[in-house]
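USER:
Class, as today's exercise, take the chain set out below, and explain how the chain folds.
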Amino acid sequence: MASIVKEAVIEASADDVWAVIGDFAEGPARIAPGYVVATRLAAADVRVVTFADGVVARERLIALDHAARRIVWAVIGDTVRPAHDNASFQVVAESDTRTRLVWIHDVLPDELAKSVAEAMDGGLAVIRETLSTRG
């Protein structure tokens, strides 16, 4: 199984970043506007995320740990159908005004790793820009 780890420093407090990252229902559209064009709940623990390129992912919430500022989800279908797909965000305070976002994505088959990593890079750039506090 391929495991991809990406990190970004965000110029904002961990509490502010977590307020958006930890929002399972609306978080994707809030953290990456334009990259994600729609998010809706299909059930209490399932969301449907539509990306600007037309890809649609149905995702199940696996864990939401407010104390650790960590959210875990799995892709379970729609236009994206890997054999296995599990991802997490963890928000780590580096200072009062700086946060490290750690994004881990495990996927099968391994051949999907390159396209997943590229999508993560694109998404992370938008996330960093969206969540960084502007002075």
Q: What stands out?
A: DSSP finds three helices and seven strands in the chain. Residues 105 and 116 are 8 Å apart (CA to CA). The two ends are 41 Å apart (CA to CA). Residues 2-131 form a domain with the Alpha-D-Glucose-1,6-Bisphosphate; Chain A, domain 4 fold (CATH 3.30.530.20).
